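Hi P.,

Sorry for the delay on this. The queue was packed all week, but I finally got your sequence through. Input first:
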Amino acid sequence: MSEEERLLAFVSDEKNEQLYLHLDLAGVNILLNELGQIKKGLEKNECPHGHLFSVDWGGWELSLSDMTDTDNGGAPVHHVKIYGWNEEWAEKHGFDRFIK
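Then the structure:
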């Protein structure tokens, strides 16, 4: 567990149609580290995944906020699971990876 100050908060809007990401430099570094681990696995053609949790859910990475860019507010996200899919598994899971 880390007791350092940092801001890394994901907030969903009321309809769960938008996701807001709030971060400071320390939060950027936490996210980049997690993504770097995913990247290393993908470079080996693996399908890695990672987790970020709030303190309420037993972690330390995520800050808590309900702030969106509207006055309506939102809901804090307590768990972010990041999946890395290689080409084979992205296709098997039916992801549309092409920009049209």
